[in-house]
Amino acid sequence: MKKPKTIKKSLLCAAILCSFNGMAADNTPAENGAEEKAVERITVTSRKKEETIIEIPMSVSSVSSTEIENRNYLDAQDLYRTLAGAAMPRGQLILRGLSGGNSAAPGTTTTFTDDVPFAFTNLADVERVEVLRGPQGTLYGSNAIGGTVRVITNKPRMNEFELFGSMQIKSEKNVEGYDDSLSIGVNLPLIEDTLALRATGNLYNDQRPYVNMYNGNQSEAQGNFIRTQLLWTPTEQTDVILGYVKTEYRSKGSTLGDTSKPGGYWRHDYTPDENAPYGYEVDHAWVECDENLIRPKCILGDQNIADAPEKYMVYNLIDGSYRSETDLVTLTVEQDNIFDIASMTYAGSYREFKDGGLDDWSRLDASDLFRTWIINDDFYDRTTHELRFQNIDVNSDLSWTVGMFYDKVNQPKNPNVQWQYHEAGDRVSASTLYWWGVDATQTGLDNFGTPSRNWNSARVSAWSEEFALFADAAYNFDLGDMGDLELNVGLRRFELEDYSHTTSAGIWSEDNVITGGEEDGYRKKISVSYMPSDNYSVYTLYSEGYRPGGNNAPLAQSCAADPKAKDRKDRYTSDSIDNYEVGFKGSAFGGRFNFATAVYHIDWTDVKTSIYMDTCGFSYTANGGGARSRGIEFESTADLGYDTTLVFNASYTNSELTEDNDAISGKAGDEMTMVPKYNGYLALDKGFELNGKPAFVRLDVATYGSYFTHFNTKDGDEVPGYTTLNLSGRYEVSDDVKLSVHINNLLDSEDISYQRQRSRTNTTTAQTYIDFLPERNIAVRIDYTFF
Predict the structure, then answer these.
(1) Which tens digits make up the pLDDT trace of 43-96?
(2) CATH of 11-262+321-785, one of 2.40.170.20, 3.40.50.970, 3.40.50.2000, 1.10.3720.10
(3) Max Cα separation, the chain?
(4) Consecutive H or E run containing 446
(5) Domain spans of the chain?
(6) How many CB atoms are located within 10 Å of the residue 690 CB?
(7) Which among 697, 750, 706, 698 is positioned nearest to 724, based on CA atoms?
(8) Coil, helix or strand for 431?
């Protein structure tokens, strides 16, 4: 195996977050009583070649394994809040204000794990995480218009046996139970200098705060993964890694709270009548309650079903659930020398994905007059290949990368994509006929042979395919004493093709729809960067990005009269991003102060966005006009001496629509949803000795501005700005055991991280969603190495 580059760091420098993670340092005299340090520049591979961050003409943040451990980051979402210009209202990363609609999960960033497009964000046994801001359409392809996250895992080590792991338990104020996480890993040398195996596993449990007051059940989630990598080095210049990842996830109950105050609820009255359908005449009445009561208390009155703070109370006749499972096989081949001209890297993958669960539709479809629910059950397989060649001469002024990428998602025949059910029994059968105006029970018997099934969505066949060729070349001009000037040009040619054949039957729709299409195009990148010395660089960058087009599901008959149904098309096209950026990076005072700043302007055309049809509860995808985003990002670290380090990151974002967009109820000039105007992060680290052992503490502050979660804003659509304070500390009990304590939301501020009114028109039965920032919580973590 090729030997990795040695990176020397002090404890604190290894713990520094941001794009300056070990960016620089020459050996300098000690100042202010600080010990003398020797810090090598850390390399990253954001341009698919090894470089220091200061050399890369784009905005990049890198987070080291030591920082991941010290800060108790269990998932990549934990570190996103510390980044300049990042937002994640519901966990999905949004960069540079590129949200595009009313969804908190717009899919504008993508994640690669070990060069494979795979959103594996569990950070157990991870070497580092790189976050690339701005469109990455040339090297990383589609769905990277806002940026790309690269997760690089630890690889097998040839001649070193390791057994390691970590345990954590966390308690949150006003949340019943404990969260826990257990990781364990092993590195096994099998044949000296030739074959090694590394395996890592993780189990975790998440006790959520929301409690269903109908039955007293608390929301919760569990998950696990196992990752194995077998490294074979047949020659000094060849590495082959065969990998396997299996992930499983299960959840039950609400992931969002509900602050709706309906002022009452509907009730059905039944009068026995042998001549009426199903033996009952049905009528309805509105039962009033205090308009200041939240929905559970309005319906239940003084009944105390479960003990929970009012803000965590929800009311659902059925607890929803979700499950997913992924089996992923990867193959990576690295050949260092091909005819003394180039190196070659191949990264391929094959995965099978299954997911499903239960959605409670009793409230939206039936106003909780009777139970009705949807069972989801779907699966697909996906194959990816990337082959690239790069110049081998690292001393050449010309560096280049050329390659190809292929991605196919195959969705086989599935008669069970969705089934909707309703309760059995004559009363419910009479209610569905009265409330829906259709005999759902008879529909089930006629179409599906069972009275409780009333609607089905099925797939005959579907697939999507992307093929791309890409090239990236950079030439460095040596200007002598004036420094270096680099010109970088990138180009990607992509071809997209897809096909979909779906059917539906039952009370909502009767369809047999075949759609498909093709697209092709180019995405470009050009940058010029100037380095007057090794410690400073300035760059200007133009880059493009896109998200693929595709096909919509059939329009349900119940949606035909919805005002937004007229904007639906069978097919939507790719959107397009043009990014203009200027940046400046520097390392001053012998590497004690490192900073990077970027100013950008982004034009977004044919914005691809999800459209929710309020009257029927279905959604579709459409191209919705144009938008623009402008902003500035700043990140910095400063070594203050005495083993004390300061981190400061901040951003300002101005993202807005440039055209009226009736489909999402947006007007030109409206601020983009999900995007705070500003965010900031300030952290102070202090290292010291305790009983002769290394220890450190960190105090950090994160702040976010307010933002809207929906165009055509209602009272429940604005998230106020908030600030949180966290405290953590670590003590190295021995060379093999590290103990850390983390107190998040130290001041126990009660803040909202997300809220949205689901319906624009129906305020009596639709949810007013809300999610609160976790209350004060304390986590205790132990990291250990057995060998």
Answers:
(1) 667 676 777 888 899 999 988 888 887 777 888 888 888 899 999 998 899 999
(2) 2.40.170.20
(3) 100
(4) helix 440-448
(5) 11-262+321-785
(6) 11
(7) 750
(8) helix
